[in-house]
Every structure is written in C-alpha cells, then in structure tokens.
Amino acid sequence: FFFNDTATTEIYTEQIVGSVRCVQETETTVPHDTFTSLSYPENFDPNITLAEYIWIDGTGENLRSKTKVYLERIERLDQLDWWTYDGSSTRQAITHDSEIYLKPVFMCRDPLRKQNHILVFCEGYLSDKTTPALGNFRPICNRIMEEAREHKPWFGLEQEYFLLERTGTTGWWPLNWPRGAYPSPQGRYYCSAGTGNAFGRLITEVHLRACLAAGIKLAGLNAEVAPSQWEYQVGITEGIECGDHHWMARYLLSRIGEDYGVDISYEPKPIAGDWNGSGCHTNFSTIATRQENGLNAIIKEYMPKLEAAHKEHLEVYGENNNKRLTGKHETSSMEKFSFGEGNRASSVRIPVYTTERGAGYFEDRRPASNIDPYLVSAIIVDTCCLNGKYRQELLEQYRKFISCLLYTSPSPRDRQKSRMPSSA
C-alpha cells in the first residue's frame, strides 16, 4: 500500500509478508530498501561483471557464495577462472590443508544484481583439483547422465518447503502461525487464496519471477497442504540440468528470504502431529516412456527395477525421511514399494495423464524435501537406464559423506531441529 502525505510529500510504504513488516520513510516510490532495489552509480563501468560463485558446503544441504569482480563481460563458462575458498570454515577441510577449489560448471543471469552480472554454480575440489570435496556429488551424476544420454532422461522436481520466521534469538516458527501454537487444521490451505489461508505468497512470487529472469526452468508454484508450506516445480530439465537448475533455484529462494527476514526449511517433517511433511516428488521420463506404448515400459520395465532397488534408493532420498514416509499425509510406507494410477499413497504414482495417453512419465513420491537432486536424479537414471551399473559406487560415496558428518557436531539435521521450538 502507498500512503501519500501531500503536506510533507513523504511516502510511507508498508510491505507485509505474513507477520514480517518493513516500514520506511523514503523520497522514492521503491517499496522498501531491499537488495534488489539497490542501484549503481552513474559512472559504473557497464563492462564490469559481478560473478557470484555458489557451491554446496560440507553439510550437503547448505549453499555458500562469494563475489568475484571481472573487468569484462562474461558470456561463456570458459571465461571464468577456477577460484578457492577456506574449506575449514565450511566443514570440508582441516585448517592445515584448507584450500578448496571452485570449478565453474553452470552459469545464468543474476536477477538480483541485474545488468550483465551472473550467478555461477561450482563444483568443489580438494587441493589436488581432482578429488571432489565433501558434498560434491555432481561429478558422478554427470558421468551417469552422459552414459545415459541416448535415453534423454527428463525431470520435473516438485520442491516443497516451509517459510519460517524468527521467534526470539535463536528460535524459528512457521510464518504467520500463532507463536508457540497452531493455526486451524489442514484442509483450507492447499492452493488457497486469502490472508487467512496463504501465508508468504509475496516471497514465492518474487522467487518465481527471479528464477524465470535468470533462465532457471521453473514450471510453476502453489500453496501446499500445511499453512506456510509452499512448492515450486523445476522442469522440464534434461540430464545434469536437473541438479544445476534445482540448486540455483534454492539459492535464489534463500537470498530472497534474506530481504524479508524469512528462513527456508527443507526438513522433511518440521512440525510433528497432524501436519504434512515436505517432499521433493520427482517426475521422470525417457524416450521409451514418452513414445507410443510407453506405459508398458513404465509398468513392465521400470517399476520392477525400482522395486528391486527400493532400499538403496531410500538411502539417498533424504535424511530424516522416515519421519515423513509413514503411510499418512499423502505418503507411502518405507517398508514396501508400491505403485498405482493416481495414487498419492504409493511409492510411485502413475498420473492419469500417462494412463490415458498410454505414454508419458511417472512420479517417484519417495524423495524428501532435503534431497541432493544430483543424487536422486543419478540413481533413478542409473536404475532405470543403466541397470544399476553405478549404484554401488554412488552409495559408497554417499555413505562416506554421511560418516564424515558423524564426526562433526552439530550435524546440519540437528541444527535444523534445534531451530524449531520444543512443541514441534
């Protein structure tokens, strides 16, 4: 809303995101002084490129970034330098051998800084520039995608998450929920509209537009079953694009959350009780499933392969996923693999769209919201297209990663839980 006092020509602007309020007196019509409203001086060299290098840290869930200034326009990946950072501060190295290299592997427009500035996603490597740093599963994912290239694997990932606001010094609680209490029961919030139903829509809208402006392949968004829970869909992506675009979308959501004092939770079951958890349902197809009679390939070829590898898939489908996959709240049981047409209580749902056409895609509903999309996309392609050729190597890398986490304290999952009040 804009309130104009003509006597003093002052403009007061109030933006409301749930219970986050920012009121500012200003001489312009900029809603409030956010990062995206910052301007450049008139003498700013238009050839300068600010490149934000982004990488996954040693938690496997959190993203870090820092800025490198280039005195030229950057239009190709091969113009970008490898860079380094202090891995002992990101849980990826020890102090006396702390250098981690950053290898640029994907870049897109920076919708926050605008102009010709860019976001650069990087793989992390140890000082030998060959060994992937802790949390870097992109190299093995890329090998699998390259070997399965002829299958043209397509993905659509449905990223669910909760918006959190600060309560006190260290506590967090879902945006616009009563402090330390609960709102009305579920049933009114899914794809809802209205102040009493949809909490935090402005953040989701800014995120959608930022991703599209960056060139990230977002297909849509919607309010989810629980209040303050939202979802955006990344796709259609092919091969390694799946992980690249998904991680970049997560980065932009975190940055936008900074502007509004809101945190993002990808915990699979952040609120105990009769509230939905958060998943990252993974829609998948290949040439074989998209062509005529592709439904037969899904049911007769892919479903048996996925059933045989059910336990191994669950291992890389997100930490704390057992709290979500209970057979309730639109989930399947972890104990047994199942699939069905339009069945949201099964491990894999075959959409009505696919059964009507006799071809299309299927939805793996098991992955949790905190997955690494490189791991999930890799193991699905490996199982369905390569008959599990890389499964053991993939699992060994992941188990080594988890064992390293056990020697550090607190773990990212423990920190996530500690941010929520005890009533959660």
Task: Explain this structure.
With 424 residues, the chain is an alpha+beta fold. The protein has helices spanning 138-147, 201-214, 241-259, 287-290, 294-308, 310-315, 352-357, 373-385, 391-406, 412-418; strands at residues 2-5, 10-17, 20-26, 49-56, 63-70, 83-86, 99-109, 118-125, 154-167, 171-174, 218-223, 229-238, 262-265, 280-285, 339-341, 348-350, 362-364. Strands 9, 10, 11, 12, 13, 14, 15, 16 and 17 form a 9-stranded mixed sheet that branches. A 5-stranded mixed sheet has the order 5-4-8-7-6, with helices on one face. The protein has a 3-stranded antiparallel sheet with strand order 1-2-3, with helices on one face. Helix 1 packs parallel to helix 8 (373-385) and helix 2 crosses helix 3 (241-259). It is globular, with a radius of gyration of 22 Å.
Quickly describe the structure.
It contains ten helices and 17 strands.
Please count the helical segments: 10
Distance between the termini: 35 Å
Counting helices, strands and paired strands, the structural category is: alpha+beta
Unreliable stretches covering 5 or more consecutive residues: 1-32, 411-424
Kindly report the average pLDDT value: 88
Helix % is 25-40%
- The total strand number stands at 17
How does the overall form come out from the CA principal axes?
globular
* Radius of gyration over all CA atoms, rounded: 22 Å
Main sheet: strands, sense, barrel: 9 strands, mixed
Beta-strand content bin: 25-35%
| N to C succession of SSEs | EEEEEEEEHEEHEEHEEHHHEEHEHHH
Write the layout of secondary structure elements.
Elements: E1 2-5, E2 10-17, E3 20-26, E4 49-56, E5 63-70, E6 83-86, E7 99-109, E8 118-125, H1 138-147, E9 154-167, E10 171-174, H2 201-214, E11 218-223, E12 229-238, H3 241-259, E13 262-265, E14 280-285, H4 287-290, H5 294-308, H6 310-315, E15 339-341, E16 348-350, H7 352-357, E17 362-364, H8 373-385, H9 391-406, H10 412-418
Parallel strand pairs: 4-8, 15-16
Antiparallel strand pairs: 1-2, 2-3, 4-5, 6-7, 7-8, 9-10, 9-12, 9-13, 9-14, 11-12, 14-17, 16-17
Helix pairs in contact: 1-8, 2-3
